[in-house]
Design goal:
The protein starts with a helix and ends in a 9-residue tail after the last helix. Helix 12 runs antiparallel to helix 13 and helix 17 packs parallel to helix 19. Strands 18-19-21-22-23-24-25-26 form an 8-stranded mixed beta barrel, surrounded by 6 helices. Strands 2-1-5-4-3 form a 5-stranded antiparallel beta sheet. Strands 7-6-10-9-8 form a 5-stranded antiparallel beta sheet. Helices cover 43% and strands 25% of the residues. Helix 14 links the parallel strand 16 and strand 17. The protein is rod-shaped and about 160 Å long.
Length: 690
C-alpha cells in the first residue's frame, strides 16, 4: 500500500522541476532535480548549505539576496503563493535566472513553504534577443518596411518615416507604390519582381519619391520571409537614402577629373579629350592645335607673396583663359602654373597664332591681389596635329618643347614647334658643337631634287636640299638641324656652304649642256634678315660665272607675311639683280592678297600637304586649283611639291599647274648622282630660261 505521503514523496523526488521545502528560513528537504541543477553531488551537501549560499550576494535589482529572501518569506505568513524571478548560484559559483514559485503548505501540522523553480536562462536570452531586434528596428537609420504576401504594408520603422516622410499610420495598409517615382520603366519593376520571386531576394538602387514629392535614390535589399504557408510569407525591404552619398561620389568624380583650385579639367581629362580630339581630327581630316602655356613670373609671386596669393593668381588666370578660348576648346590646368589649351579644327596657323596672342594679352593684364598689383606674362608653345605629332604624348611633348623655346626667345611670346626643339639641353649643346664642325669636316652633303615641267615631263630645274651625315647619328634631316643652326647662329655659314655647292652644281650642269636649268635654294628667315644675302649670292654667282637668273631662292609663306613691308624691300633688291623668288609651302600660312600682289616674287609652291590628297579629297583639290588660279592671275608660275603619283601629276597638269616636284619623278639625290640622272633624261633639251 502506498500512502498518500509516499505518493507525494515520489512525485516530489521524481519531478523534473527542482523543488525544496523551507521551514523557518532553512531547507529541510529537496529533490534530485534541485541537486543536479545546482551542481551539488549529494542532497546532504545542498541541505547543509544556508539559503544565502544558493544565491549571489545581490539580486539584479541591487537588493541583498539574504534580505530579499527573508522579506519575501516574511510575506508568506498570510498565505497565498508567490511567483517571482530569482538569481541562483550553482555550486561552481556560476549564476542563472530562475522563476520561483512559493506555496505555503502544512506538513505534519507545521507550516512549511514548498518552493519549486525553473531555470529560465533560455527564455531570458530569447527575450533579450527580441528586445534587441525591436530596438534595432526602432533605432536603425535604415528604413524598414514589411509587407504581407500581397504587398500590403504591415509595419514600418521610424527611419522609414524619417526618409520617406510617410508616418506609420499613413503607410500601413498601403503598398510601397506610394513611393514610386517616374525614374524607372515597367521593365525595371518587372525584373525586380522576377528576381525577388525566383531567388527570394533583390538588391539594388532605386529612385523613389518622398511624400513631399522629392525624388531620392535609395539602396535597397528586399527579402522574402517564408511563412508556414505561401500566403503567410512576408517581404522585408531595408533601404537607405544614398542621394547625398551619390552626390558626394559625383563630386569626387568631378574632383578626379578637375583641378580643385580653378575647376578646370586636369591632366586626366585633358588626355581623354585630346585623345578624342585626335580621333575626330583624323577622321574629319582636320587639324588640331595644342597650346602649352607657362606663366613666366609665377614662382616669384608664389615665393614672395605666399601660396594664398599664388592660388588667387592662378584662379584669376583660369577665369581669364576661359574667356580667351571658345567653349568648344578644352582648357585645362596641368598643375603648377601650366595650362594647356586644345583648339579643334583651326582654320590655319594664323588662327592658332591669334588665340595664342589673345591668351598672352589676357595673361599680361595686371592682377590685383588685395592691395598688391602684380604683373605676370605667359610663354606658349604650340604643336599641331598631324604635323608635329600624331598622338597625345608627342603633341604634349612637342608643345612643351616649343614653350621652352618661347621662354628662351625672351618670354611673353609664343612659338610653333619645330623638330630641333625636341633635343634635350645637353644633347642640343653637343649637336650644336658637332654642327659647328660639320661644315669644315665636310659632313654636309648637297642633295638635289629635280623639278619637272608638266607639259613636257622633262626636268626644268632643281631644288637644293642639304643633308648632314653625322658620324654617329647617321643622316640627319634638315628639318631637324636647320632650326638648330638658326638658333646657334650657324645658319649664315651653312647657307653659304649650300650656296657654294649649288653654284658648283650649276656650273657642272652648264658644262654638261644644261645651262638653262635653274637651281632653287632654301633661305631661312635669319639669312634673309640678318645676312647680306644679295651680296653673298651675287659674289658667289660671279665667282662661278653664272647668270643671276639661274638662281632661285625659296622662302616660306610665313617668313614673307610676318613682316610683308620689310619682305617687299629685301626681296625687291634681290629680284632687281635678276635672282628669282619662290614662296614655299604656300597655303599653310596666312597670305594677305593685297600684299601678295605687291610682293616681288615669281613662283608659288603649293605645299605638299595639299598635293598629297589632291586626287581624292575635294577640299584639297579645291585648294590646289585656287592656288593655281591665283598664280595665273598674278602671273606667277606655280610649282606643286610632293607629287607622289601619276594621278596627282595628271590632275595638276589638267588644272594648269606648270611644274611639279616629288618622289613620283625623282627623290632628292646627291648632287653627283643628279648630274648623271639629268643626262639620262636629256632626250629633250632643257627648258630655256625666261
Ligand atoms: P621644303 O623646302 O619644303 O623641301 C621639300 C621637302 O619635301 C624635302 O624634305 C624633300 O625631300 C621632301 N619631298 C620632296 N618630294 C617629296 C614627295 O614626293 N613626298 C614627300 N613626302 N616629301 C617630298 P627635306 O629635304 O627633308 O627638307 C626639309 C626642309 O628643310 C625643306 O622643306 C626646307 O624647308 C629645309 N631645308 C632643306 N635644305 C635647306 C637649306 O639648304 N637651307 C635651308 N634654310 N633650309 C633647308
Ligand atoms: Ca623648299
Ligand atoms: Ca615646301
Amino acid at each position: 500500500m502506498t500512502t498518500c505521503e509516499e505518493r507525494f514523496r515520489r512525485l516530489f523526488d521524481q519531478s523534473p522541476d527542482p523543488t525544496w521545502i523551507i521551514e523557518d528560513n532553512r531547507f529541510i528537504d529537496c529533490n534530485e532535480a534541485a541537486v543536479r541543477l545546482l551542481g551539488y553531488t549529494s542532497k546532504e551537501g545542498l541541505l547543509r548549505s544556508h539559503p544565502s549560499d544558493l544565491s549571489p550576494e545581490f539580486q539584479p535589482d541591487g537588493e541583498r539576496s539574504l534580505m530579499k529572501a527573508e522579506r519575501i518569506l516574511g510575506t508568506m505568513v498570510g498565505g497565498g503563493f508567490r511567483r517571482f524571478e530569482w538569481t541562483h548560484r550553482k555550486a561552481d559559483g556560476t549564476t542563472f535566472p530562475a522563476e520561483v514559485t512559493l506555496t505555503p503548505m502544512s506538513l505534519d501540522g507545521r507550516t512549511v513553504i514548498h518552493c519549486a523553480w525553473r531555470d529560465i536562462s533560455a527564455r531570458k536570452a530569447d527575450e533579450a534577443a527580441l528586445q534587441l531586434a525591436a530596438s534595432v528596428y526602432r533605432n536603425t537609420i535604415e528604413g524598414i518596411v514589411i509587407t504581407d504576401s500581397e504587398g500590403t504594408i504591415v509595419s514600418v520603422n521610424p527611419a522609414f518615416s524619417e526618409i520617406t516622410g510617410f508616418r506609420a499610420e499613413e503607410a500601413i495598409g498601403q503598398t510601397p507604390r506610394i513611393l514610386k517615382s517616374d525614374r524607372h520603366d515597367e521593365t525595371f519593376y518587372k525584373q525586380l519582381w522576377t528576381r525577388l520571386l525566383d531567388t527570394g531576394q533583390w538588391q539594388g538602387e532605386i529612385w523613389n519619391r518622398r511624400k513631399n514629392g522629392e525624388v531620392y535614390l535609395q539602396h535597397q535589399t528586399i527579402t522574402r520571409i517564408p511563412g508556414p504557408h505561401p500566403a503567410a510569407a512576408q517581404f522585408v525591404a531595408i533601404f537607405n537614402d544614398i542621394t547625398e552619398l551619390r552626390r558626394k561620389d559625383e563630386r569626387i568624380q568631378h574632383l578626379a577629373f578637375h583641378d580643385a583650385l580653378t575647376e578646370l579639367p586636369n591632366r586626366l581629362l585633358l588626355t581623354d579629350r585630346l585623345e578624342h580630339g585626335i580621333a575626330v581630327a583624323e577622321r574629319e581630316r582636320q587639324r588640331l592645335a595644342v597650346l602649352f602655356l607657362d606663366l613666366d613670373q609665377f614662382k616669384v609671386v608664389n615665393d614672395t607673396l605666399g601660396h594664398d596669393h599664388g592660388d588667387a593668381l592662378l584662379q584669376v588666370m583660369g577665369d581669364r583663359l576661359r574667356t580667351a578660348v571658345r567653349g568648344c576648346d578644352t582648357l585645362s590646368r596641368l598643375g603648377g602654373d601650366e595650362f594647356v589649351v586644345v583648339l579643334t579644327d583651326p582654320e590655319n596657323e594664323a588662327e592658332v597664332a591669334a588665340v595664342a596672342e589673345r591668351i598672352i594679352e589676357a595673361v599680361n593684364r595686371p592682377v590685383d591681389l588685395g592691395p598688391v598689383r602684380v604683373h605676370v606674362s605667359g610663354s606658349i608653345g604650340i604643336a599641331l596635329f598631324p604635323d608635329d605629332g600624331m598622338n597625345v604624348v608627342s603633341l604634349m611633348k612637342n608643345a612643351d618643347a616649343a614653350m621652352y623655346a618661347a621662354k628662351a626667345a625672351g618670354k611673353s611670346t609664343f612659338r610653333f614647334f619645330n623638330a630641333a626643339m625636341t633635343y634635350r639641353a645637353e644633347e642640343r649643346l653637343q649637336l650644336v658643337s658637332d654642327l659647328r664642325l660639320a661644315i669644315d669636316k665636310q659632313q654636309l652633303e648637297l642633295f638635289v631634287q629635280p623639278k619637272i615641267s608638266l607639259a613636257t615631263r622633262l626636268p626644268c630645274g632643281a631644288e637644293a636640299l642639304v643633308r648632314w651625315r653625322h658620324p654617329e647619328r647617321g643622316l640627319i634631316s634638315p628639318a631637324d638641324f636647320i632650326p638648330l643652326a638658326e638658333e646657334a647662329g650657324l645658319i649664315i655659314s651653312l647657307g653659304e656652304w649650300v650656296l657654294d655647292q649649288s653654284c658648283r652644281t650649276l656650273a657642272q650642269l652648264r658644262k654638261q649642256g644644261f645651262g638653262g636649268m635653274r637651281m632653287a635654294i632654301n633661305v631661312s628667315a635669319t639669312q634673309l634678315h640678318e645676312g647680306c644675302l644679295e651680296d653673298t649670292i651675287r659674289a658667289m654667282l660671279d665667282a662661278y660665272g653664272l647668270e643671276p637668273a639661274t638662281m632661285e631662292i625659296e622662302l616660306t609663306e610665313s617668313m614673307v607675311m610676318n613682316d610683308p613691308d620689310r619682305a617687299i624691300r629685301l626681296l625687291g633688291k634681290l629680284r632687281a639683280s635678276g635672282i628669282t623668288i619662290a614662296v614655299d609651302d604656300f597655303g599653310t600660312g596666312y597670305s594677305s592678297l593685297a600684299y601678295l600682289k605687291r610682293l616681288p616674287i615669281d613662283t608659288l609652291k603649293i605645299d605638299r600637304t595639299f598635293v598629297l590628297d589632291a586626287d581624292n579629297n575635294e577640299d584639297d583639290a579645291q585648294i590646289c586649283r585656287t592656288i593655281i588660279a591665283l598664280g595665273n592671275s598674278l602671273r606667277l608660275s606655280v610649282v606643286a611639291e610632293g607629287v607622289e603619283t601619276a594621278r596627282q601629276a595628271d590632275c595638276l597638269a589638267e588644272w594648269g599647274c606648270q611644274t611639279a616636284q616629288g618622289y613620283f619623278f625623282a627623290r632628292p639625290m646627291p648632287a653627283a648622282e643628279f648630274l648623271t640622272w639629268v643626262t639620262g633624261q636629256s632626250a629633250c633639251l632643257p627648258q630655256a630660261l625666261p
